Amino acid sequence: MLSIVPTPIGNLADITLRALEVLKQADLILCEDTRRTLTLLRHYEIGKPLLSYHEHSSDRRAEEILKLLKEDKRVALVSDGGMPVISDPGFEIVHAALKEKLPFEVLPGPSAVTTALVMSGLPVDSFGFYGFLSNKGAKRKNELKALEDHEETLIFFESPFRVLKALQDMLEVLGDREAAVAREISKKFEEVLRGNLSELIAEMTRKERPGEMVVLVAGKGRKRIFEKGDSATLNAQTTT
Fold first, then answer.
1. 240 lies in a domain?
2. Is the confidence at residue 20, as pLDDT, over 60?
3. N or C: which end of the chain has fewer CB within 10 A?
4. CA 137, CA 139: separation in Å to the nearest integer?
5. Total domain count for the chain?
6. Neighbours of 2 (CB within 10 A)
7. pLDDT value at residue 156
8. What are phi and psi of 82, to 5 degrees?
9. Does residue 240 surpass a pLDDT of 80?
10. Residue-range definition of the domain harbouring residue 185
11. Are residues 163 and 225 in the same domain?
12. In this predicted model, what pLDDT tens digit does every residue of 199-225 receive, in sequence order?
């Protein structure tokens, strides 16, 4: 059995009891970065063999995993944080399991997408998640143009090294819409910036911010949510 196991996106206490039980029962745990996963396992005193699986893994590694599943081994798939497979190389393993008609289960758990959506204050009645935008400017603008007329809240993952350029392209293509940037969700320096894209750009230019980012932008024609000029930085301290 292949088990898709969500792990905390920050605070280690966010893991579910069921996830811990599955990890304890697993014969093998597949992970992106063994160091990140070891931190979680050591915190909960779980000792299991780890096998790295990431975007640069060979086809041979996938075949090795399928062989284990066919031998009735319990394999748990985790990501560095949150729900595996979402913008994550684990999709290839799930696809391979489906192709071979091998059973798998998906545990519910933490997700940066829905957490950031609720934190943003933007409309939650409909939304679209679009993963990472291209790191090439022209292609990124084309991707945004394809979303220009979408009325749902738009959600993206973004690198701290590219987030400013992405926001600038969003302003150019989508106009000065309301938006939010959620950073380091559930970690010690968790932060949410809310305001128009132009205001967020000014704030991100004033002070660089490291860490994992989720960018959210209001859909076309959406009623204004934030008060004019109310773009204060909201900080929430958590314990990791």
1. no
2. yes
3. C
4. 6
5. 2
6. 24
7. 97
8. 90, -160
9. no
10. 112-235
11. yes
12. 999 999 998 888 889 999 999 988 888
Q: Are 237 and 188 in contact (CB under 8 A)?
A: yes
Which CATH number is 174's domain given?
3.30.950.10
Give the separation between CA 107 and CA 119, rounded to whole angstroms: 23
E strand or H helix that includes residue 51:
strand 50-52
138, 188: one domain? yes
Classify residue 188: in a domain, yes or no: yes
Nearest to 77 by CA among 99, 100, 97, 56: 97
DSSP string, 155-173: EEEE-TTTHHHHHHHHHHH
Question: Cα separations (Å) of 14 from 11, 47, 82, 185, 240?
Answer: 6, 20, 10, 12, 10
What is the number of residues in the chain?
Answer: 240
End residue of a domain, out of 42, 76, 106: 106
Instruction: Please report whether residue 64 resides in a domain.
Output: yes
Alpha helices in 26-72 (DSSP H): 34-43, 59-70
